[in-house]
User: Fold Biotin carboxylation domain-containing protein from Ancylostoma caninum.
Amino acid sequence: MDSWYKPQAVGPRRKVLVASRGEAALRVFRTLREIEIESIGIYAHEDRFSQHRQIFRVIKRVGKA
Assistant:
């Protein structure tokens, strides 16, 4: 390794961005909730009424799907 590279310990994650939709997003959300990790979801305008958008506490809209 180069001398400029110094790996650092990283603590446990507290938030996870779920960039998926449908059943996959629901499964990830449920698992994260069980292990008490906050999930952040994203959605496109076309998905604004979908189920995965309704379950996240933190949800952000992104561009077109």
Observations:
- The chain has one domain: 15-61.
- The domain at 15-61 is CATH 3.40.50.20 (Rossmann fold).
